[in-house]
Amino acid sequence: LCSSPSNRSRPLSCVAVCGGTHGNEMSGIYLAKHWLRDPMELQRSSFAVTPFLGNPRAIEKCVRYVGQDLNRTFTTEFLSSTEAEDEPYEVVLAREINQTYGPKGSAQAFDFMFDLHNTTASMGTCLIVDSEESLLPMHMCHYIQMHYTRSPCPIYLYKLPGEETYSINSVAKAGLALELGPQPQQVVRADLFSQMRDIIACALDFIELFNKGTVFPAFEIEAYKITGRMDYPCYPDGEISAMVHPKLQDKDFLPLNPRDPIFQTFSGEEILYEGNTTIYPAFINEAAYYEKKVAFVKMEKHMFSIPGLQRD
Amino acid sequence: LCSSPSNRSRPLSCVAVCGGTHGNEMSGIYLAKHWLRDPMELQRSSFAVTPFLGNPRAIEKCVRYVGQDLNRTFTTEFLSSTEAEDEPYEVVLAREINQTYGPKGSAQAFDFMFDLHNTTASMGTCLIVDSEESLLPMHMCHYIQMHYTRSPCPIYLYKLPGEETYSINSVAKAGLALELGPQPQQVVRADLFSQMRDIIACALDFIELFNKGTVFPAFEIEAYKITGRMDYPCYPDGEISAMVHPKLQDKDFLPLNPRDPIFQTFSGEEILYEGNTTIYPAFINEAAYYEKKVAFVKMEKHMFSIPGLQRD
């Protein structure tokens, strides 16, 4: 009946930072390449940080992936598959990454992995965590929001209920993905590059404080939780027949109400949102989601109570 | 010794509009596909308009090109080459397009070709003409600037002195390319889509007026003329070592003065512009130019006197 004032967790010793999980998202690729040339700025006294390039072959070709999306490949199905001649490059790669930084779910796995992404959507400096139940990442997000004040850092909780984790950082014991935009694929913008660099520096400072025994009290925090996806309208032949409506474009994380316009057909008609409740769209008009016909991700905004945290 | 008040030129009867010369520049691709489904809005009484898709295989894969840049392939060298087994797809395609809409330089060629492009640079609604000596396109640009007032339409003269024309619209007797941005590759934004559609409608109205005998008087006009290109700084291994400076990013067509910053290295140092005169950069941080290591195109701003024009 006597609960401790905060949850206790072991200090972190091995941290990885991945750029280029998608080979055409350039902020993280150029950052990881820079750190591989000059790792000094990643150094902290209480833990080691290892930068690496997620998908070298996709980076070389400057494409999202070669065979299949690497960041959907870290499931039991793929990680436990046996080698086969015709398997996609990313399945082989995922098993290798799992050997190096995991194995996923094991005691040997890295303590933490950052994964660096860009989007063509106007998502600003978005922090992606699997769910609000991930205590250390939620404390890290809170710390970033308090100390990185150049822009708001919305928190995006990506795991649908009952879904298995599938992202590259699920290989480590805990993780955080950064999703900075808008930035076109294949392009590096100096402003987003420095934002990403500063957020990683801030997150490493948090780990240092945690390792050194700082007590992080409980807090309340706002976060967006994914509830589903909105597909593009299509012609009978499968081609998309409408664009994201100009009034929705660039409005990531802002409320979308029932009967608000969401699409404009190529002939000029408006299509309205037919849901019954207000949602908060994200990944609006993301280039990489056309192949899945996804126009945006639907989210709800919630307040979460996060318990306190300190090291063991 | 008695010059006529304006140059006379034959009316136009065959006009083509090309989308998807680059397979990942979506405004023109979706416009051309829309017009192929429903060509009504292209109809005018005095001439015929044919929409077409420039590079179908690149559009299918949503990439700029498959083998080589189609929009650099309309030179004598490629158009007069004989079929070979290992030649790039775009060389075969260029000969086919030249047969359909040309032959380049011949009396049978189409009278006019529009070519629809997007850029990741902040070039707004840019009008690209080969040179100020192209009388009818310069009058068309002037007409667009007077009648399409939603945004400024800078004129970009792309041909370097002594250079052969190489673009897809050089197959027709005259041409105009639209270059709308910023828009990420693989993405269609409703605002740019409607701008492109409106500019084409305006340009077709101009042709209609010209064909029907409207006299277009002489005028003075400002235009930007290419003088060269600025490469990215590189490491000895050929990788770029710097980004476009945040103060230059998104500043297309604005003056860049000697000693203004142009690059920021990944380590954080500034690199300044070392030229002796003010220039006007364009295509700043264009995604497709990284493979050529081109950071921006250098331009000069000039006033040109354009003689009057009327139909024969």
Explain this structure.
2 copies of one chain form a homodimer. Chain A has 6 helices and 13 strands. In chain A, strands 3-2-4-7-5-6-8-12 form an 8-stranded mixed β-sheet. Chain A has a 3-stranded antiparallel β-sheet with strand order 9-10-11, with no helix packed on it. In chain A, strands 1-13 form a two-stranded parallel ribbon. Chain A has a single domain, classed as Zn peptidases (Aminopeptidase, 3-Layer(aba) Sandwich). Helix content of chain A is 22%, strand content 25%. Chain A is an alpha/beta fold and 312 residues long. The mean pLDDT of chain A is 96. At the A-B interface, helix 1 and helix 6 of A face helix 1 and helix 6 of B. Chains A, B: Its cofactor is Zn(2+). Chains A, B: Belongs to the AspA/AstE family. Aspartoacylase subfamily. Chains A, B: This is N-acyl-aromatic-L-amino acid amidohydrolase. Chains A, B: Keywords: Cell membrane, Cytoplasm, Hydrolase, Membrane, Metal-binding, Zinc. Chains A, B: It is found in: Apical cell membrane; Cytoplasm.
Integer-rounded radius of gyration of chain A: 20 Å
Uncertain spans of chain A, ≥5 residues at pLDDT below 50? none
Q: Could you tell me the CATH topology label of chain A.
A: Aminopeptidase
Outline of chain A: globular
- Summed up, the helix count of chain A is 6
Q: How much strand of chain A?
A: 25-35%
The CATH architecture term of chain A is: 3-Layer(aba) Sandwich
The string of secondary-structure elements of chain A, in order, is: EEHEHHHEEHEEHEEEEEE
Q: Which chain pair has the greatest contact?
A: A-B, 33 and 33 residues
Mean pLDDT of chain A: 96
- How many strands of chain A? 13
Main sheet overview of chain A:
8 strands, mixed
Judged by helices, strands and strand pairing, the structural class of chain A is alpha/beta
Oligomer: homodimer
Termini separation of chain A: 21 Å
Q: How many domains is the backbone of chain A divided into?
A: 1
